[in-house]
Amino acid sequence: MTDEPRSNRRPSMSDVARLAGVSQTTVSFILNDTPGNSIPPETRERVLAAVHELGYRPNISARNLRTQSTNLIGYGFDDPAGVASHPVLDQFLYSAILSLEATGYHLLTFVAGTRTDTAVYEDLYRRGQVSGFLVANTNDNDPRIAYLIDRGIPFASFGRANDEWRFAWVDVDGGDGIAQVVAHLVAGGHKRIGLITWPEGSKAGSHRESGYAAGLRAAGIEPDPAWLFRGENSIQTGVAGLSHWLTLPAERRPTAVACVSDIIAVGVMNAAAAAGLQVGRDLAVTGYDDSSLAQFLHPPLTSVRQPIAEVGRRLVELLLGQIRGEPADATGVMLAPKLIIRRSSQI
Amino acid sequence: MTDEPRSNRRPSMSDVARLAGVSQTTVSFILNDTPGNSIPPETRERVLAAVHELGYRPNISARNLRTQSTNLIGYGFDDPAGVASHPVLDQFLYSAILSLEATGYHLLTFVAGTRTDTAVYEDLYRRGQVSGFLVANTNDNDPRIAYLIDRGIPFASFGRANDEWRFAWVDVDGGDGIAQVVAHLVAGGHKRIGLITWPEGSKAGSHRESGYAAGLRAAGIEPDPAWLFRGENSIQTGVAGLSHWLTLPAERRPTAVACVSDIIAVGVMNAAAAAGLQVGRDLAVTGYDDSSLAQFLHPPLTSVRQPIAEVGRRLVELLLGQIRGEPADATGVMLAPKLIIRRSSQI
DNA sequence: TGGTATTAGTAATTCGTATTAGTAGTGTAA
DNA sequence: TTACACTACTAATACGAATTACTAATACCA
Fold this sequence. Notes:
The structure is a homodimer of 347-residue chains. Chain A has helices at residues 13-20, 24-32, 41-54, 60-67, 87-102, 119-126, 143-151, 174-187, 203-218, 235-246, 262-274, 308-323; strands at 72-77, 106-111, 132-135, 155-158, 169-172, 193-197, 228-230, 256-259, 284-286, 303-305, 332-335, 338-340. By secondary structure, chain A is α/β, with parallel strands linked by helices. Among the domains of chain A are: 6-57, 434 Repressor (Amino-terminal Domain), CATH 1.10.260; 174-306 and 339-345, Rossmann fold (3-Layer(aba) Sandwich), CATH 3.40.50. In chain A, the strands form three sheets. A six-stranded parallel β-sheet of chain A has the order 2-1-3-4-5-11, with helices on both faces. Chain A has a four-stranded parallel β-sheet with strand order 7-6-8-9, with helices on both faces. Chain A has a two-stranded antiparallel ribbon with strand order 10-12. The mean pLDDT of chain A is 92. At the A-B interface, α4, β1, α5, β2 and α6 of A face α4, β1, α5, β2 and α6 of B. β2 of chain A pairs antiparallel with β2 of chain B, so a sheet runs across the interface. Chain A binds a DNA duplex (30 and 30 nucleotides) through residues 12-14, 22-29, 31-32, 34, 37-40, 43, 58-59, 61-68, 128.
């Protein structure tokens, strides 16, 4: 009822309108470039000047309420304790955030608790807090993905889950990555190549194992189950893997060890040094992820680099496309990794 | 005007009210336990049944708009590329998220761009998207903190910034942590103890350097500037530090090396092995952070464990207190770290 | 000159929730 | 029997922005 701008409060659109001598509607038209309205330049400038003077920023809650939308995407976070840190996930997060922010979205990071607990996802979505989800670290038949598909909630996943399900995913071809490693090692003269991989059930792990087997067969070598070692993603697993093989007689022992992560490879290199083996001469070792430590190890570690930044970008594209209601024709995107050869795998 | 529930839309409070045969006001009273209202048990149950049947969830935007509040806290993310990953920050984030979620808040993770760019903070706050911020990885005279203090925006920081400024922080006493390390090494007979630390300007680094000097003086040893080596937080820095000291004549060379992070210590251990030195016998090495890799290195690494989970909890307490408008009497909270002794520092 | 288009706006309504101000009906004490 | 308190609600409004449905004034055309 009064013409006084309410003080001691963030300015609203009406305050801007009052200062510029126009209606709130006009301010909205100008700020949103709403099509089909004619605003002469003088008015536009007057309003923009008022916006500037008051330091006006549109209120997000009001906008979201009115447009029945959200500027948030959810991402479920895992407990980082215990497992070694995930440089790949950190990088992925970073690139996803960058892409989201370029389009006015933000990332809401929440704790996913147990993997099977989908209640948080439901709650965030039903309350209108987020418009969709990014999912990473997928497993075979991942319950989160089953749930999101079932409810028709927009999401995009870094990694595949089940070949029968149709949904938006982006993945780096891990089979191809390890196949490149194997080809490289074979070319270096190795015939007995070990693989240290994760426990069964990991989707990424099973793809890499297939690539390993395929790579060996392509070179005319029949994979030996004794060359496969499994464990959590830790330095310790690498230590345990190599220690185990060192108990074999020399003529049956792998001369090269491929690992599904750099952190495991660090364990192998440690154990090799402890056993008096010189990595790059007595034993070839390769990692995966090309994390920042790979180039600083002694010797520098051959590794497989994934185009993580592109994964983030493409995932955000897929997700925002769904949210905008665009038909999702291409549901999966497969990207190629690149082998980075360093001294740890030279002979 | 119609009594039909609008279909194809998330149910609103009015839909619940209609189904239960009460007014929207009554539903609100029941769901929020608004004091000063008398609701008989039958009505309450009827309404709760309707809530359940419709799967109703209150709309967050509407609630935030009405209450002029937010259920989000912002956290600025750094580019993880280049620098080795920060297990401490990952853990800190995790514990902060847990504490926030226990009180109905969520974490909005954004990219902070350059450290001096405070525009993102301003924007998120002024638009009413977040109620405050968590800040980590502070520097001397940190511009983010200066800005947040200046604007009176609620925040709490993991780490101190400038002794003159008064604001809410939680820190782990890094000086004490390194002093414990030095005392342990001195007790083991070491007289020449090197320190590998970060470049000047890091607040955490300067505290640890003071603790190092104080620890030596407490043992009657005058610190020698030649025993200090600086570099980024990477394996490479550890390698460079030890390599540098190995060029000194044996009688001036440190016999023990304390590092301000485990990742640097990994570099020192690598370089030691390459130089034929056996860590734990020829050279004592200590790390900091007690990250998950410390116990799996060869030999296991003596390190300093920070109560990270408690840091997250306390920070969230301080921050939410400010947001609720409680007077902040105790502005800083200092927590004590704990030395974890393993074989890398035995003689 | 009258009718239609166009320009430059404005008033009113909506999104979903919380809250303030009320009201009808019953019980009860004076 | 009336005044008053209490119970069990409801109507109306506000939060801030977007949008639909108008209007007054001018320009244009036949």
